[in-house]
Write a structure and sequence with these properties.
The protein is an alpha/beta fold. It has 16 helices and eight strands. Helix 14 links the parallel strand 7 and strand 8. The N terminus is likely disordered.
Length: about 350
């Protein structure tokens, strides 16, 4: 009996066809590597243009350019010579989501994903060609995850969401020394607040303070002055009720820095929510010389914020080590302090005491 007949009558599937010689040739591998090197380089160029023209950020532009040039070094002539664009079935494929972009940030995010996917392909198929290239693609993909977080402002907002202690500075002869002591004590955010110094002095101090904050992995915010915050590339700016509208501040700052707003009542909180503030100050909880003539909002407003504030917020106003426990008990997820640290005999120890209430 014919063995083929037995196979068919017994319900066995026919043997698969042997792969064509081309399917097992280096050309297939080279076409895959070529296509994904092209895809990754194109995506990086789109991201690079955003860093250059959208963010005006030299450091990020240089990082992306270096990645793109590294890929160019891997893109050999033998890969390009294997290219068969007319015979590529993928060129005719599309998806409605690929044909529309809503915002500039969407363009950046989509192309970050595109590059990450291409790097994963290069990592896996690269193992068949060069272990160095495969390893390099893997490391580059991890690097791009971090860069994406910076490009879209996710890293700053993630740190904001975790922050519990916030120092607002006041003029002092040893300003930078006190700020560093507070940073050593574990303060999460520092806001540089100065109402009377010359702009040249403010600009210099703000730059030095930002460097200190970043040395200790703390966020640095400038009070009121959007121009100074922009000039030194601060993490954000804090606006009072009579400062610039949020939309104007964002237009100057760009999309990455965070913008906070002071609020003293539910109406002001609603405005901040509608504006899209990244965080708010809630207070003054107690009367404070920092806000002369401003009546204390008290614990009732703190409890209102607990129930209604959708963004990170910090209770502020006359908070010190004698009442911080009551503020915490009222539900405040974080506090902002001024005199309790700026005028403390030991700013590091005072800061540590505040941090312990939120640990």
């Amino acid at each position: 009996m014919n063995p083929t007949s037995i196979s068919k009558t017994s319900g066995e599937a026919p043997s698969p066809e042997a792969p064509s010689p081309e399917a097992s040739s280096p050309k297939v591998l080279y076409r895959i590597l070529d296509a994904n090197l092209d895809r990754a380089r194109e995506g990086l160029r789109i991201i690079e243009e955003w860093c250059r023209f959208g963010l005006n950020n030299v450091s990020l532009t240089e990082q992306i350019k270096h990645l793109r040039q590294t890929l160019g070094h891997w893109h050999s002539d033998e890969f390009r010579q294997s290219r068969d664009t007319p015979g590529d079935p993928g060129t005719a494929l599309s998806h409605p989501q690929e044909e529309k972009r809503d915002t500039l940030q969407t363009v950046v995010q989509v192309n970050c994903c595109r590059v990450q996917e291409a790097l994963r392909v290069l990592e896996e198929y690269g193992k068949l060609h060069s272990t160095d290239m495969a390893h390099g693609a893997k490391q580059m993909r991890y690097q791009l995850y971090t860069l994406e977080s910076k490009l879209l402002g996710h890293d700053v907002r993630q740190r904001l969401a975790k922050a519990c202690t916030y120092l607002v500075t006041s003029p002092h002869e040893q300003l930078l020394g006190i700020v560093e002591k507070a940073l050593q004590g574990g303060i999460d955010i520092v806001q540089y607040r100065e109402k009377s110094a010359d702009d040249e002095v403010r600009l210099e101090l703000a730059g030095k303070m930002k460097s200190l904050c970043h040395q200790y992995n703390a966020l640095f915010i400038v009070n009121d002055r959007v121009d100074i915050a922009t000039a030194i590339d601060a993490d954000g700016v804090h606006l009072g009720q009579h400062d610039l509208p949020m939309s104007a501040a964002r237009q100057i700052l760009g999309p990455l820095p965070i913008v906070g707003r002071s609020t003293t009542c539910p109406t002001e909180m609603k405005r901040a929510i509608d504006e899209g503030a990244d965080y708010i100050g809630v207070g003054p909880v107690h009367a404070t010389p920092t806000k002369p003539g401003k009546a204390a909002a008290g614990y009732e407003y703190v409890r209102y914020a607990v129930a209604n504030a959708p963004m990170p917020w910090f209770a502020i106003g006359g908070i010190d080590l004698t009442n911080v426990a009551a503020v915490r008990a009222a539900g405040a997820p974080g506090i902002a302090v001024v005199r309790a640290v700026m005028q403390a005999d030991d700013p590091t120890q005072a800061t540590q005491a505040f941090v312990q209430h939120f640990s």
